[in-house]
Description:
It comes from Micromonospora carbonacea. It contains eight helices and two strands.
Amino acid sequence: MSIRHGLLALLERGQMYGYQLRAAFEESTGSTWPLNIGQVYTTLSRLERDGLVRPLPESEAGQRPYEITDAGRADLALWFATPISRTDRPRDELAIKLALALTTPGVDVRAVVQTQRTATMRALQEFTRLKYASDRPEDLPWRLVLDAMVFQAEAEIRWLDHCETSLVRHRPAGSGGRAGPGRPAEVEADRDGEEARR
């Protein structure tokens, strides 16, 4: 998530100070990605340095609002018009974890997959519950965020199923035909037994 462009989008609505920006950001995303106030002010400082926002005089309460500049509007418009590349997104920690589990001796990769599947199923149930918790029109931005998280969780479960199937079929080099890693040989034997019983 680009906090930088998130704040620019909020300032396009009108001038705001730090705490207002944090509250508006969390309201727009259903608090899915909570921001701490330090992140807000650090980002505002960088936006000001880059000429994309400008600070306004402090209010009587000592709050300094910011407003977006013309350069900020142009940067925001470019962001909305440009698709987000997959290379711009954070690394897929789960894929890295499974790849390392597969190549680390002694790791039960199937257990890693099962643990992740259980956690992802729980998350999917929670996202679905939250999605149907409110149907107010003003909650549409939040529900769209939840939709994205539901689809991601469903895709992750499908990918974990694929990983488990691939593990069953995997024959590491030099294993002499023994399936691995983790305990796929046992899984293979169980599966063979099941087929024999049919």
